[in-house]
Specification:
The structure is a single chain. The chain has 283 residues and is mostly helical. The chain is 75% helix and 0% strand. Helix 5 (97-114) packs antiparallel against helix 6 (124-148). It is globular, with a radius of gyration of 18 Å.
Length: 283
């Protein structure tokens, strides 16, 4: 059971925290208790349920996100995933019945990514669009609904555009989590976006996505008069830019530097810095 719990990769949820804080930072008011419940639901149950399901079908033997040496998949993993699924939907229903529908939809889509009869992971462009839209835009709006419950604000153009920015940032970071898994993905018959692009091209692609996301969020912050938020975003973004540039310079000299260690550092830095920026905006 302990190995199965490890494969749920609960600590890996930290890499998806920026979407939560970004969504909260953009709503006019927050009911703290609802916000805490939504945080627990997503980061303790929903994301780990998706991670565990992915591990069950991938049966990774090499490093995966959050685990340098994953334990072998055992029979207790699948029932544990189903338990987390049930808790996720029931918990979401307790928060709001409609929110439970959103969470159920996310769990279904996340399973299609790995399920061997569908296996979206075999289609590089489609899988990337599904992951970035559902982990970004879709969850951004779902979080806001669960905490704020005001559709009129949530569906305003500027808010929808900010939700789209969260997907652009994921579009930049997501391929970097695949860059060290080319051999294993190729052996399984999966074609990730990073594998399709190549190692150096993955970095160029991510840089363009990050740039588009940053320019869009800068424009939106200026447009709505949130100049201070823009300064906060730019300040917290400097360490991300610095480490990305440093890592890319190493990869240009030696492609073997596109490995698990550097990828996890990149994700950790970007996650903590973006979460920090949105938390400061929120406070």
């Amino acid at each position: 059971m302990l190995d199965a719990l490890k494969l749920m990769r609960i600590p890996f949820s930290i890499f998806l925290m920026p979407v939560y804080w970004f969504a909260l930072s953009q709503i006019p008011s927050i009911e703290p208790l609802r916000a805490i419940h939504v945080f627990i639901l997503l980061h303790i149950f929903v994301y780990p349920a998706s991670n565990g399901y992915n591990s069950y079908f991938d049966k990774d033997e090499k490093s995966i996100g959050g685990l340098k040496n994953p334990p072998p998949v055992n029979p207790s993993l699948y029932p544990l995933v189903l338990l987390f699924d049930f808790i996720s939907v029931a918990y979401a229903f307790w928060i709001s019945p409609l929110f439970a529908v959103f969470i159920f939809g996310y769990l279904i889509v996340s399973k299609a990514y790995s399920y061997d009869k569908i296996r979206l992971k075999k289609y590089p462009v489609l899988s990337t669009l599904v992951v970035t839209i559902f982990q970004g835009f879709y969850l951004f709006l779902s979080i806001q609904f669960a905490v704020y419950l005001e559709w009129e604000f949530i569906l305003e153009f500027n808010n929808l555009a900010l939700a789209a920015c969260s997907s652009l940032f994921l579009l930049g970071s997501y391929p970097l989590t695949q860059v060290y898994q080319h051999q294993e993905d190729r052996e399984r018959g999966d074609r990730t976006l990073s594998l399709l692009l190549g190692i150096k091209e993955t970095f160029y692609f991510s840089a363009i996505a990050f740039l588009l996301g940053s320019l869009t969020i800068a424009y939106l912050f200026i447009e709505q008069g949130s100049v201070n938020d823009l300064y906060i975003f730019l300040g917290f973004g400097l360490p991300i830019l610095a480490y990305f540039s440093y890592w890319f310079s190493l990869v240009i000299k030696n492609p073997n530097r596109a490995n698990f260690k550097y990828s996890m550092r990149m994700n950790m830095i970007s996650s903590l810095c973006l979460s920090g920026a949105f938390l400061v905006m929120l406070v």
